[in-house]
Amino acid sequence: MIASLAFTAPWMLAALAALPLLWLLLRLIPPRPQRFDFPPLRLLLDLAPRRRTAARAPWWLVLLRLLLAAAVIGMLAGPVLRPSGEAAQRGGPLLLLVDNGWAAGPQWSLRKDILAAALDNAAQAGRPVALAALADPVADLSLSRPEALRERVSALQPEPWQADRGAFAGAVAAFLKAEPGAEIAWFSDGLAGPGDGPFLALLAAAAARERPVAIYRDPAHSALALAGANNAPDGIDVRVLRAGDGGPAAGTVRALDLRGLPIGHAAFAFAAGKGETSAHFDLPVDLRNDIARLEIVGESSAGAVQLLDRNWRRRVVGVVSGQDKDVSQPLLSMNYFLSRALQPFADVRLAEGTSPGEAIDRFLDQKLPMLILADVGNLGEAEDKLAGWIEGGGILVRFAGSRLAAADDRLLPVKLRDGERTLGGALSWEKPQKLGSFAENSPFAGLAVPDDVSVTRQLLAEPDIDLPGKTWATLADGTPLVTAEKRGKGMIVLFHVTADTTWSNLALSGTFVEMLRRIVGLANAAPPAGSDGPGAEGQAQATGEASPVFVAPSRTLDGFGAFSSPPATAQPVRADRPGTGRPDHPPGFYGPPDGLIAVNALAPNATLKPLDLAGVGAQLQPYARTSPIVIGPMLLVLALALLMIDALAVFAMAGGWARLRRPGGGAAGAGTAAALALVLAFAAPHRAEAQARPFDSALKTHLAYIVTGDKETDDVSLAGLKGLSAYIAERTALEPGAPVGLDPARDELAFYALIYWPVVPDLPPPPPAAMARIDAFMKSGGTIIFDTRDAVQQDAGQSTTPAGEALKRLLSSLDIPELEPVPPKHVLTKTFYLLDKFPGRYDNGETWVQATPQTPEDSDRLVLGGDGVSPIIITSNDLAGAWAVGPDMNPIFPVSSGSERQRELAYRAGVNMVMYALTGNYKADQVHVQDLLERLGR
């Protein structure tokens, strides 16, 4: 036991020589004199004390303090108790060989502790040490003091490739020749390597010459690894390897995406005596294509990780739709048709709950190779950014619609005629048109022309000399169905029909899927701007260029299998032949984020073999933790306990307990408690004040208006919606709450179905961020009433008015659909009251809504998406002025005709608009009731 005791700071033990002097000093210092009260009436009684005070400190108190000083000195000396097996030390140099490849990662902490203990033993015995990490670059071996190697051992980490022992054979041989009496300790990982022959022969020769050779190994643990993942049609299969029978015979492989989020788990089990098995992931295709990393749970090494690169993923396509969100019939939306057509071969990302401009910005920031815009007209501020993305190699596919027909857009392959061609219109066919042909120079070449696809409406291209070269598909009459134009490195493709079934039944055919498949195939050869990844490689191969493409490391794996920044020694890899991990090409992801290439630690056909040490003749040692026991913390606890006992003894000898028992003696304690309570009271957290405005709009229907900042206008809006709310509560089953004023830049708009917006000519429009929220609100099914309140000026013959110009500026940043005056049979005319016009304070203004195309086959279909609700209503009749009431609920403003009948119709128009926004197009379906009942009867 005494031989196992060592000190990290033995010079501190010299302070023990001062203990006799401390004994004398403590004996000479008497205790504190006893204090007596001096009451005048007891003067004679207290002159003779009842007991005497000692002149010297008690022997037990002196001994206590000596023990305290000895404990502090012993703690500062750093005593360490080593296991008895390590007490006996050999002499001579020591050579430490460490396998720090990926196979050492799972038990690296244990091996590092054993290595540190070996250094400590060598330092205590005064032995010089040489250290070689066999996965690091080869260097000459030289002896150093163990203390100088502690920092290197502390920083030593496993590398994400296998140790190359054969490369160190020459350096080890030279060291043993220079140091004939050196002892060898090899901390192996138990995994056989390709260059082990010369290295093992060298150790066997050293052991034969009776040189001490110790090899540490762990037969109870076998290295596990993944290799050769295969994306089969029914799921993902990955090979699981082991180097021996040690360790668990079963486990779990986890699949993660690029963000590290788990996608799935798969179990595996080894048969007895087998070194290979497989794990199978039975996941849907869309989930499988999100997997970027496979790893063995609980096996922290780079070999237990299999990275999956871009070859595993379908191309990512962002879809932005200008169509209003249709909650009641989502299976008829453009997003649904596009998603179903793209899902077999592409990863689809839909933009929902946001404006088209924001969605385009987000997709461009994600560097997607392809975007699809379905009936998106006004691109706003995103147009310039989108144009630059196309120039850099992006593929933009656009589908026609009413919004695109009404827009003035430069991101089109051809120039379009104003309006669209409709069956039964001025530019019409006698019957629907069939598909004509696919151009031979287009990606659609070779596709069979279906005879069951018909088109009833399209956007017409202006004829010019370049139109035939830009046409990929035509109709039977020769007009273009699909046109395209190359812009820089990218391309713009336009389908002259919608992505749903409103203009044609192309979206229902298999040809539509094949057309999209071939367009998506172009995105692989056209990477986005700033990318020189696989897209550039594909272009080089297509043009016959022989020069290889190299990609730089993006994120690499460390020895534990965790992602880290690439080391300074990492070099680019060939995109077509990345190879496996090695010092200059560590495992990880290489290339840009949209074209990652995976480099793994093991080759797809790799196998693991256990290390054969039968012929070495060395002493085999298990990995067992033999860390020394540090006694210093125990002595610190003892010193603190002795200090506490000493303090209590001095307190008692000074009469402290007696003073506490006297009346009034606890005043100090009470004062301390009061001060503590005061501090706690001030430190206690205070409950935050509740917000002045509760969000009760989610629980009750409220009419809302936009706060313009003009006090007179805002007061009229509030009074008008107050009057309309009271009218609705009186005439219908709906009981609206109090009207709410909204700031589109700050307030949540999703709580409100209908928002009234009075247009003020002299005020600037809201900032772009607020307009983007307005656009998203309209796309999500909300309706906004824009009221210019200038019907009198229009009636006076003014072609343009200040309010009208302000409305144009306001709508210029929104994706507004094609508009038309309210048709006679529109749902808005019959949602609650039967109306033929929508007056306010004035009755001569026109009311505009989203245009609803009609065809002879479906003449009663007056609404489309968004549950049949137009996202915008424009009027000039000053609705709020007719609805406005004062505190006595009497009208504030007169109407233009002077008749209260006009005000009554204005209220009814408001009721219809509210019911229209809340209930959608159910009134339009009433005409089909008889057909529905007959169908149910069958």
UniProtKB/TrEMBL annotation:
Ranges annotated as biased composition (Basic and acidic residues): 574-583
Keyword presence, Transmembrane: yes
InterPro entries documented for this protein: Aerotolerance_reg_N, Double_TM_dom, DUF4159
Highest taxon of the lineage: Bacteria
UniProt key word Metal-binding: no
Annotated ranges, domain Aerotolerance regulator N-terminal: 5-79
DUF4159 domain mapped to chain residues: 702-918
Transmembrane segments: 59-81, 635-658, 664-684
Region (Disordered): 561-583
Keyword terms of this UniProt record: Membrane, Transmembrane, Transmembrane helix
Gene3D superfamilies: Domain of unknown function DUF4159
PANTHER family in the record: BLL2463 PROTEIN
Listed name of the protein: DUF4159 domain-containing protein
